[in-house]
Design brief:
single chain, about 375 residues, alpha+beta, Aminopeptidase, 2 domains, 10-stranded mixed β-sheet, 4-stranded antiparallel β-sheet, 10 helices, about 25% strand
Length: about 375
């Protein structure tokens, strides 16, 4: 029987280099798994309230897999607790090299070890995302094995598009009219590497706060977010209004293993009526084509209101916007979650009940 053990990143020699090598080598590892993205999530979650307990899966003295694991503070209704997640979202699924002996046993070891370490750190829920760069054929089988460990299936559908010479011709016709009308008023640029200056980072910070209506994470987290573009794992698309000379919008696209993801966007509310979001997305797709990126994920698709899912009007509007680019194309993102305490489960169910009462006008 093949044996495995865990090596915490804080005790591993050259942990960052080994992590980055494995991220490139593991078929399941995408931009979610990278060292730079892990550092961003650590800072965004609040360094004083998060523990990075990530570890390597070891076999015969060699690292054959990586397991992202962060335990941080969360709030469900009135309950303040701790959960294993990435800044409020699911953590990347454990990733293993293709040559690992007995892959199924290695993954079961990784999930069992992750849960034990999460429990020890006081986590009351675990959330995991199985999302390789391109959909594979074994996600459902692996989810079923996780369900055997008492995880629940919390998967969702995400807007997803093939990037080729027909992509822009297939977007919603109204969007093409907006781009044609407003593009002459903007200088569009793709910015990455050393061109991501402290001034551009500061501009994005202020733009994001203005767009969101407040600052909801630390200023430092924006530096780590900009580092994704500085380190070649992402790029910014920048829209500068020619008449006013100001940056009216910025879009951060993660691009790793020739597959891209909508990471973060901010548009100055003063320029919303000039469809800056459309100009940013159009330019981003042009850049993805130039780079040979094959697929582009835009983010979750909002379903109709359901018993356990009540998307807000804002989220449904965002989803409608994304649908105009991806059209009917989607991918299924496997998410598994496990509750580790009765009080957390009860608080979660109470929050769902409160939302349903509000939806039905019962409170």
């Amino acid at each position: 029987m093949t044996s495995y053990c865990a090596l915490p990143i804080e005790t591993a020699p050259d942990a960052m280099q080994v992590w980055e090598r494995l991220t490139k080598a593991c078929p399941d590892a995408w931009f979610w798994h990278t060292w730079a993205n892990m550092q961003f999530n650590f800072v965004a979650a609040g360094k004083s309230e998060v523990q990075n307990l990530s570890f390597f899966v070891m076999h015969d003295g060699q690292a054959v897999g990586l397991v992202p694991l962060m335990v941080n503070r969360t709030k469900i209704g009135e309950l303040v607790a701790r959960e294993a997640s990435y800044y409020g979202g699911p953590m990347p699924w454990p990733a293993l090299v293709a040559e690992v002996p007995d892959c199924e046993a290695a993954e079961q070891f990784a999930l069992t070890e992750l849960e034990a370490r999460a429990r020890e750190a006081g986590a009351e829920r675990i959330r995991l995302r199985l999302e390789p760069p391109l959909p594979a054929s074994n996600e459902q089988d692996r989810l079923e094995k996780a369900v055997g460990l008492k995880y629940l299936d919390s998967s969702y559908v995400s807007h997803w598009m093939t990037v080729d010479e027909n992509t822009l011709a297939n977007v919603r016709e109204r969007y093409r009219r907006y781009v044609k009308r407003f593009a002459p008023g903007y200088d569009m640029a793709v910015v990455e590497g050393g061109a991501v200056t402290p001034l551009l980072e500061e501009t994005y910070f202020h733009l994001h706060v203005k767009d969101a209506g407040g600052q909801f994470r630390s200023r430092e987290s924006y530096r780590f977010q900009a580092d994704l573009a500085r380190q070649g794992e992402a790029f910014f698309v920048v829209a500068r209004n020619r008449a006013g000379g100001v940056i009216a919008g910025m879009l951060l696209i993660s691009s790793y293993k020739k597959v891209a993801y909508d990471n973060s966007v901010a548009v100055d509310p003063d320029y919303q009526n000039e469809y800056v979001s459309h100009l940013l997305k159009w330019t981003a797709i042009q850049e993805l084509l130039r780079r040979g990126v094959t697929h582009y994920e835009l983010g979750p698709k909002s379903a109709l209101p359901g018993f356990m899912s009540l998307p807000s009007e804002k989220n449904r509007g965002i989803s409608h916007f994304k649908e105009g680019w991806a059209r009917a194309s989607t991918r299924r993102v496997v998410v598994a979650e496990k509750f580790l305490s009765a009080r957390f489960l009860q608080a979660y169910m109470q929050a769902q009940a409160d939302s349903l009462e509000q939806h039905f006008g019962l409170k």
